Amino acid sequence: MTATANNLLGTIDTDTGNIQTNTAGLSNAIITLGSGWTSSYGQVRSAYLMGVLRSDTLVNAGSGIQNDDMTLLQVNALGALYTTGGEVEDEAVQSEPLLIGGRYDSSARDLDPGDAGAIALNASGHVLTAIPDGGGQGVKVTTGAGDHIVLGGDVTCQKIDIQAQTDNTGLIAVGFNNVDVTEASGDGIILYAGDTYSLEVNNLNLIYIDSTVTGDGVRYTYFT
């Protein structure tokens, strides 16, 4: 045996007394479950549960625990491990909230089709949504009862708000091509005088109207 190996064994022998002296402290963090624990396979066995503390309310495990100190894992009454954001619904917050995908950028991101992207936040942490940057408006009058007509031309948009004229004397149906205002057997959304309807669509020429009375119509506003 080399001199280096002998020196190492001597060091181990010397430290054995220190390990034995501190076993009382270790026992505070090791619980012997013994023969009372049965596995899911029906076999009774002994086991050791190390460093886990039940805390019905998550607290500092020791009054003297400071940042970077060693401490114990904590579980709730059911044995579930407390983790950051691991809260129970309709109960008081016990840890830091879990953050999900939010990110603040001072300028717009340039994502390509198929790219993953975090939820966009403004400087105060509020979620940003697409805001229309313009649009237009118009009026459409039917030329014959039962004849569905297109709402507008080839105009790109994001959303359309439609209102049946307040002086209409009949019904207006709003929908896609072949919309039918016939009550009971028709289709589309029925609007009475003054009713409004909003829908998200990418072009005015996708929306049609039909009426029960010639000359009834709608007014609309679209957003681009």
SSE blueprint and pairings:
Blueprint: H1 3-21, H2 23-27, E1 30-32, E2 48-50, E3 52-54, E4 73-75, E5 102-104, E6 119-121, E7 135-141, E8 149-150, E9 159-164, E10 172-175, E11 189-191, E12 196-200, E13 208-211, E14 217-223
Parallel strand pairs: 3-4, 5-6
Antiparallel strand pairs: 1-2, 7-14, 8-13, 9-12, 9-14, 10-11, 10-13
Structure description:
This protein folds into three domains: 3-75, no CATH class; 102-129, no CATH class; 135-223, Jelly Rolls (Sandwich), CATH 2.60.120. 11% of the residues lie in helices and 25% in strands. It has two helices and 14 strands; from the N terminus they run ααββββββββββββββ. It has helices at 3-21, 23-27, and strands at 30-32, 48-50, 52-54, 73-75, 102-104, 119-121, 135-141, 149-150, 159-164, 172-175, 189-191, 196-200, 208-211, 217-223. The strands form five sheets. Strands 7-14-9-12 form a four-stranded antiparallel beta sheet, with no helix packed on it. The N and C termini lie far apart (84 Å). Residues 1-6 and 28-45 have low confidence and may be disordered.
